[in-house]
Amino acid sequence: MSAAPRAVVLLSGGMDSAVVLAEMRHAGFECHALSFDYGQRHRVELERAAEVAGMLGAASHRTVRIDLRAFGASALTADIAVPKDRDVAAAHDIPVTYVPARNTIFLAHALAMAESTGARDIAIGVNAIDYSGYPDCRPEFVEAFERLANLATRAGVEAAARGERWMRVHVPLLRMGKADIVRRGRALGVDLSRTISCYDPTPAGLPCGRCDACQLRERGFREAG
Amino acid sequence: MSAAPRAVVLLSGGMDSAVVLAEMRHAGFECHALSFDYGQRHRVELERAAEVAGMLGAASHRTVRIDLRAFGASALTADIAVPKDRDVAAAHDIPVTYVPARNTIFLAHALAMAESTGARDIAIGVNAIDYSGYPDCRPEFVEAFERLANLATRAGVEAAARGERWMRVHVPLLRMGKADIVRRGRALGVDLSRTISCYDPTPAGLPCGRCDACQLRERGFREAG
Questions:
Q1: Helix, strand, or coil (residue B212)
Q2: Which of B7, B16, B46, B113 could form an S-S bond across to B125 if both were Cys, CB 3.0 to 4.6 Å?
Q3: Which residue on chain B is closest to A64 by alpha carbon?
Q4: What DSSP string runs through A95-158?
Q5: Strand residues in chain A grouped as ranges (E)
Q6: Which residues are registered as beta bridge partners of A6?
Q7: ipTM associated with this complex
């Protein structure tokens, strides 16, 4: 019997990436979780990420430091207030919590880890339905990254020479609303109470209840009953 | 008179990126140089990068730490010997000095810096002629990254809505041989003696003279007279 294929799973400590990890485990992958200490305001999520990784049976969990505060320009990485009580359902702009190129940098690191460890699968919890309007959560972004990944790497080039595709980026939540994510998480046995979604938690690590992420999460739970 | 447009220029301390910086300055850009302390064996290049940035009139120079040693799997970031005395001209494989996803990670950071600082141009010294066979130095890689950059970002999405393209990735050396790079550097007044290309310098920071990078550099100087 061959060993389970390895996958690199981006894990934030939030609900979405926890459900992605459970989904990838369910699909039979040996999951290696990757988190980032990027100077985020809601750094408490990293403790939750470690807990979630253990709870859901990740084979390993690594937190890599990257300095997005060096560039700033986001409410998550600079001294800009996190918007509260926005009408998330009606909003169509990209909010100030957008972090320039964040998912590109996260996926680039996941790609390095995948190629270095023999994984050919990466999973990320982006979601294009109930989301905050971030450009790097859209399907066209994910497709463009997958294409890049296969051109950027030795493994990608070698697979292409055999007429194969090396890297696949899994986005199991892409077309799911928050309520569906809650239901799927429950079905997979994820203890969602251990996750935190808030962008601006209290010093004690409690959610603010008013930022976009808290609102979307709350709505998801309400709709899922 | 409007201010010069800003560009983010990736600067390694080597010959190629120095010529790129000079080329972008020559083209009229206000250049913001970006270097990476990524656990590279040839860390001495960072001192040279700082010197080159000053010498060529970069408006700023920033060195960001990223931990590629966490993933290893390269002679530049792990305890793997740097190959010496290879027949570089005859070699067609991708050597062990290849660092998984390195240029993807570098460009992702440049993208974050560009969007955060109002630059819409990035320049990188990749070269598909006299190079070591790295997949992330090929034109198809650069094109795929540029496409990704415009999909990944708020600035890219907003420009697309106006029917414009936001980000351009400049690769002025892409089709140049090493001798041409030496000649172009001289024409632009770059003091190439201040750059270092070696992958495996001595503790005193002197080039080994035998790695691929030293061989390619040496051949460039010889052919350029």
A1: helix
A2: B16
A3: B67
A4: PTT--TTHHHHHHHHHHHHHHHHT--EEE----SSSS---GGGSHHHHHHHHHHHHHHSHHHHH
A5: 6-10, 30-37, 60-65, 121-123, 168-170
A6: A30
A7: 0.88
CB B85 within 8 A of CB A75: no
> Tell me: the pLDDT tens digits for B201-223?
888 888 888 888 888 889 989 99
The beta-carbon neighbor of B104 closest among A71, A117, A152 is: A152
Across chain A, which has 225 residues, the per-10-residue mean pLDDT values are 87 95 98 91 87 96 86 70 74 76 95 94 89 84 97 94 96 94 96 88 85 87 89
Residue B61: phi and psi, rounded to 5, are: -145, 125
CATH superfamily of A6-223: HUPs (3.40.50.620)
A88: DSSP letter: T
What is the reported pLDDT for B1? 47
CB-CB under 8 Å, A100 with B115 = yes
Distance from CA of B183 to the nearest CA of A (A): 29
In the DSSP assignment, the letter for residue B12 is -
Residue A54: its pLDDT value, please?
97
pTM of structure: 0.91
Q: Other C-beta atoms within 10 Å of A48: how many?
A: 23
List the one residue out of B69, B85, B86 whose CA is nearest residue B77: B69
Residue A81, pLDDT score: 74
pLDDT digits (tens, 9 = 90+) for B23-33: 999 999 999 99
Residues in chain A closer than 8 A to B75 (CB atoms): none
What is the C-alpha to C-alpha distance for residues B111 and A104, in angstroms, rounded to an integer? Answer: 9
Residue A154 to chain B, least CA–CA distance (Å): 6
Contacts of B147 in chain A (CB under 8 A): 144, 147-148
Chain A residue with Cα closest to B64: A67
Q: CA-to-CA distance for B104 and A146, rounded, in angstroms?
A: 12
Q: How far apart are CA B193 and CA B55, in angstroms?
A: 12
According to the model, what pLDDT value does residue B159 have?
95
Alpha helices of B67-133 — where are they, by DSSP H?
102-117
Q: What are phi and psi of A202, to 5 degrees?
A: -70, 165
Determine the residue type at A38. Answer: Y
